[in-house]
Amino acid sequence: VMQDPRMGQTAASALCCLPISRVKGWEVDAQLMFARTKGNAMLWNNTFGWGGAFGSQPRVDFNSQLALPEHNVVPTFSAKYRFQPRWSMQYQIMPTSFESNGNPDSAFQFGTLNYTTGQGVKSKWERLYQRMGLVYDPVLTPSSRVGLYADYVKLNERLSVSQVGGGFMGNGSTFDNDLDMIITGIEFEKCMKSPRPSNTLSCEAKAGIAFLNDAQGADLSAGLKYTLNFNNGRAGFVKGGYRYLTYKKKYSDVKSIDTAMDGGYVEMGFVF
After folding, report:
1. Residue pair 206/185 in contact by the 8 Å Cβ criterion
2. What Rg, from alpha-carbon coordinates, does the chain have?
3. Neighbour-count burial of 167, counting CB atoms closer than 10 A to its CB (0-12 exposed, 13-18 middle, 19+ buried)
């Protein structure tokens, strides 16, 4: 038997019970997302101005024109500290960096330069996505949990594009996108069954909407989690599911960026 603070009584270890960190306890995890990365950006900086000799400025596609890889493995690291029975602090970091040399499938303009079909293009997309905030669990039972969260989001990304070959080698332009936002959302986890004593299978879903700084974003995920309870408030888990992440901002009619990642993920973590 084990003592579960959510019930205030002794329960059989075979009960379908979610692993919840104790007060002053931690939950840490690492995730790998097998993501399809996509996006578009607009940066018009030449001397002709808007509507110049090249007509209306199109949005530049990350994959077909900048030749950035469409599929990537994206890591995420998270930590949560429960300082009250229903209150926790959490932190998440997602570092990414993709680069490629390729040939655009259509002509485009980015910054001060024009790129033609078949011309060598060197592109690099760097991003550091961080979240830190609070989680409150209005529903916390042995078999289910509903949490409401509000996080501060810090997003720093840079898109660099340059021409390769001839007299243009090394020339290019850079788009810096630095956002300070708030993301609010809901988390849900439900214990489904106990395949073996002290082990549990649960479903989990999270949905958050980001705003402020004249930008919009969303972070959505759903999956299944298998937990091995080690007693004394300790547990380990593996998780698999789907995640969708997007952020976009329009600075003006000649400058904007819209990015997204989506795909399956695997995750491993510990509660202690």
Report:
1. yes
2. 23
3. exposed
What's phi and psi for 117, nearest 5 deg? -60, 130
Identify the bridge partners of residue 190 per DSSP, sorted by sequence position: 144, 203
At residue 92, the 3 state secondary structure works out as strand
Lookup: tokens for 267: 């995750």
- Concatenated DSSP letters of 144-204: EEEEEEEEEEEEEEEEEEEE-SGGGTT-EEEEEEEEEEEEEEEEEEEEEE-SSTTEEEEEE
Q: What is the pLDDT of residues 247-265, one digit of tens each?
A: 999 999 889 999 999 999 9
pLDDT for the residue 46: 55
- For 256, the token pair is 């904007």
* Sign of the torsion angle spanned by Cα atoms 222, 237, 182, 175: negative
Place of tokens 């960096």: 97
